[in-house]
Design brief:
Blueprint lengths: L4 E4 L5 E6 L5 E5 L4 E5 L5 E6 L4 E6 L5 E5 L3 E6 L2 E7 L7 E5 L6 E5 L1 E2 L2 E2 L3 E6 L4 E6 L11 E7 L5 E8 L2 E6 L5 E6 L4 E9 L2 E2 L11 E5 L5 E7 L5 E6 L3 E5 L6 E5 L5 E7 L5 E6 L4 E6 L13
Antiparallel strand pairs: 1-29, 2-3, 3-4, 4-5, 6-7, 7-10, 8-9, 10-11, 12-13, 14-15, 15-16, 16-17, 18-19, 19-20, 20-21, 20-22, 23-24, 24-25, 25-26, 27-28, 28-29
Length: 307
């Protein structure tokens, strides 16, 4: 793999990168509580103050940036940087927000699904039907933690439904190139699951012997956790990996797993952009950096962004 190139330093726990057509990268700074933009020259500007804990982000059909807001963390100093911990003392619940990238206007689109309050929305991906899948990681407190779920919502604010339940810290979410598979990474177990998509916002629930009724794509050994993910054009699921900092590439059938190390134990997310979608932009959150590197295959074109 080629060497990485630093694009920006001094970000306050970056996540949710989006490679924009003008060469900038829109991302969240979770500790700063903002949606920000990294310009091609490395300058950082704030698009909007979001409060709570802005996490995953994606461009929607109306051109706005949709953000999973986890509601906020306690923050602890680790050397020169801050790292997240338990549910924040000022936590008011999770939400889905939509941000006008030109004006910075913020709309809170959802605070509840059909099953109740959103706890800790984490990551999202849009389909071709103006809807999006998102994970609700839940929140962790000193003596207990939430069970997570996966929801499907419409960009127009009309519906938000819980579709998959009984998950342990669901985090990254993505779609296969043909749109027939939904992938979800679980952080603490270090697993990636998949479900067959049968219709917009629906998956086939089968008796697979697992609590979440999903199919296991891969589980990794040792102490490493899975964060957010992106899918490339060949269907490889590329998962940002914590502790064993890097990107874990998983073939569509789960038979081949390759780890690409990064110089940060909290490698949290990636997206594809640049000419031919051949560049991976990766958030290194503990060191507050955004880096870029050539990718061995083109990334998957995203609905409402690359197509």
């Amino acid at each position: 793999m080629a060497a990485i190139t630093a694009m920006a330093h001094g970000l306050r726990f970056p996540e949710g990168p989006i490679a924009m057509p003008d060469g900038s990268i829109v991302l969240v700074e979770i500790e700063r509580q903002t949606l920000s933009r990294v310009h091609p020259n490395g300058a950082i500007s704030v698009i909007a103050a979001l409060g709570g804990g802005p996490n995953g982000a994606a461009l929607g059909p109306d051109g706005r940036c949709y953000v999973c807001n986890n509601g906020g963390f306690e923050w602890h100093r680790h050397g020169e940087t801050m790292v997240p911990g338990l549910q924040g003392a000022d936590y008011q619940g999770g939400s889905i927000q939509a941000v006008d990238l030109e004006t910075g206007a913020v709309e809170t689109l959802y605070t509840h699904s059909d099953q109740g309050r959103l706890r800790g929305p984490n990551d999202l991906v849009f389909d071709a039907h103006e809807g999006f899948w998102f994970t609700d990681f839940g929140k962790t407190r000193r003596h207990d933690m939430d069970r997570g779920c996966v929801c499907y919502a419409k960009a127009d604010g009309s519906t938000c439904r819980e579709v998959i339940r009984a998950m342990m810290t669901p985090n990254g979410v993505g779609l296969s190139p043909d749109g027939t598979r939904l992938y979800v990474a679980e952080t603490l177990p270090g697993r990636v699951w998949w479900w067959e998509i049968t219709a917009p916002g629906q998956v086939r629930i089968e008796r697979t012997g697992t609590a979440n009724r999903g199919h296991l794509l891969v589980g990794v050994p040792g102490y490493q956790e899975f964060d957010s993910l992106a899918v490339d054009s060949a269907g490889y699921v590329c998962v940002a990996t914590l502790h064993n900092g890097g990107i874990t590439m998983i073939s569509p059938d789960g038979s081949r797993v390759q780890h690409i190390p990064m110089p940060d134990s909290m490698t949290t997310n990636l997206c594809f952009g640049g000419a031919g979608l051949r560049t991976a932009y990766i958030t290194l959150s503990q060191t507050g950096c955004l880096v870029a590197m050539p990718w061995p295959r083109p990334g998957l074109a995203l609905h409402y962004l690359n197509r």
